[in-house]
Amino acid sequence: MMWRLLGCTFCLFVSLQPGFWRGWAAAEELEGEVKIEVLFKPLHCSPKSKKGDLMNIHYDGFLAKDGSQFYCSRTDKDGHPQWVVLGIGRIIKGLDMGMVDMCPGERRKITVPPALAFGEQGKEPVPPNATVIFEVEAFSVSRGPRSMEAFGNMDVDNDKSLSKDEVKEYLKVEYKREGKPREESFFDKVVEDIFRKNDNDRNGQISVKEYNIYRHDEL
């Protein structure tokens, strides 16, 4: 699709058009609720995301007040899409809420009030009490790593822990199933990031407890 080719160049162009944002921002700041606008949805919209699912996304962040851009995932971390587990607090609450029921290929504009974004303190470069707008594209939606089913699918040798090879093979299958195969180096970087965040004892394995399955049964 043409908009993908434009990438962040388009986002930066839009951010320079203050009239495009100003009226919308004022209304949202008063309402104090997350607003979702679907920009594109595939005819076959499945599976739909829910709490605990693993999502692969690109997203751009803008200040609602003037449309200035404060984040673009296409220029961060070598431009790779970001992995997020929905509903566990790894991203701001309003974005968590705004990505529920989203399917691969779908694009959304999500407006988040300060209380569900960066709050009274803000977070550089986002100022205090700022309403923010995210444009999100979902590439894949799969059962999250904190679901027992996904853990079992990855744990090929049934030793109740996950090796890097097991996680990598699982991701390869999921990407292939979604029709989005990637280079080997992509999966290497993703796996390293997953282990950096979850392998708490640094033994090269991710245990059931490190994935918090027993502490978060609702996932």
From TrEMBL:
E.C. no: 5.2.1.8
Entry GO terms, CC: endoplasmic reticulum
EC supergroup of this enzyme: isomerase
Signal peptide (residue range): 1-27
Record field: catalytic activity: [protein]-peptidylproline (omega=180) = [protein]-peptidylproline (omega=0)
Record keywords, A-Z: Calcium, Endoplasmic reticulum, Glycoprotein, Isomerase, Metal-binding, Repeat, Rotamase, Signal
Pfam families recorded: EF-hand_7, FKBP_C
EF-hand domain boundaries: 142-177, 186-219
Occurrences of domain PPIase FKBP-type (ranges): 52-142
PROSITE patterns: EF_HAND_1, EF_HAND_2, FKBP_PPIASE
Protein name per Swiss-Prot or TrEMBL: peptidylprolyl isomerase
Origin species: Tetraodon nigroviridis
